[in-house]
Amino acid sequence: MPTAPPTTPRAPTRTATPTTRSLAATASRLGPGLALAAVATVVLLGASRLLAPATGGAVSPLVLALLVGAAVGSVLGRVVPRGGGVARFAERVGPGTDWTARTVLRAGVVLLGLQLSVPDVLALGWRGIAVVVVTVACTFAAVLALGRMLRVPRATALLVATGFSICGAAAVSAMTSVLERDPRAGAGEPARLRDDVAAALALVTVYGTVAIVALPPIAGALGLSDHQAGLWIGASVQEVAQVVAAAGTISAAALATATVTKLARVVLLAPLVAGAGAVLARRAARAATPGGAAPDDVAPSTARGRRAPLVPGFVLGFLAAVLVRSTGILPDVVTDTATQVTTVLFVAAMFALGTGVDVPRLARTARRPLVLGAAGAVVVSGVSLAAVLLLVP
Prior knowledge:
With 393 residues, the chain is mainly α. It has one domain (34-47, 58-391). It has helices spanning 18-55, 61-79, 85-112, 118-122, 125-149, 154-165, 169-179, 190-221, 226-236, 240-247, 252-267, 269-288, 313-326, 332-354, 359-364, 367-391. Helix 3 (85-112) packs across helix 7 (169-179) and helix 6 runs parallel beside helix 16. The longest helix is centred in the first third of the chain and has 38 residues, at 18-55. It starts with 17 loop residues before the first helix and ends with a helix. The model is unreliable at 78-84 and 293-305 (pLDDT under 50). It is found in: Cell membrane.
């Protein structure tokens, strides 16, 4: 009797695990927006290099990224009627650009800490450090007060105060992450928060460019020494590129002092953002508590019911990066690479933020923030100059 031929065993059918399906769904949801941000970042970095000789490095690639992102967002969201192919594409890229504007931005703030060394800041001496602290504290408080007087939206005033007192676009970006957790600012109206960010960054660019032209001749007319001029420019001009452009026209010594002074301002980013986050958290908790009284340990809850930390995690990461850089154990190649990566991350985040900016609304509401920016420029320049003249021989 013939025997049946042996059967070849079938390979077991592989089924996707829940983790694999979840990762695939996340990649599908975020992929288009991440790809758009990546392509835009490459193009913008190349464009900023081409524009640098013509602008003297005064135009930050971060601000350029925001402007281009706003233009792209306006085209995708408004030119094509709803239901069109481009409109559907805009809806597809939204999740990815939102993720970039939030997560990539925070990663950039953490890496920013690797550019800062506490020993370099201490080399300014107590007089130089006092100039920085006084300038930051007075500018931040004054701009917030002027914002209330001018009836500028609270989030806009906070972002402008942070950008003018600390370090321009990077500081605005860090404070944005704090406002995103505030139900009266970012958590309730994310689109409006993006408009506030765009306004603050535009003001930093406009008045920082004015400072490049105005401060060096004023320093010469006042007879400031190179050290005094460097302290003044580093303590009052917003962007690092603007500081370099302004101080570089005076002397190499002024440029060196201005750069270190600027870094000293950036060190204050962490305590300022942490303090603002703690204040906003207590206000939110007080508003959510019957009778308006909030116990000391109350913090706003996240969407899943957990309490949000009073100090954001990316701020702690920023401080940890500063400490690592201050030890001196990192080779120059690592810090140089970190600086380049930080710029890439910030450009991507600024482009993503720009795609959500409501340009027509921003144009309609820009008058009062423009006045606030002018007042902030006067305050930061005046306070820092007075501090230099009083404290630095």
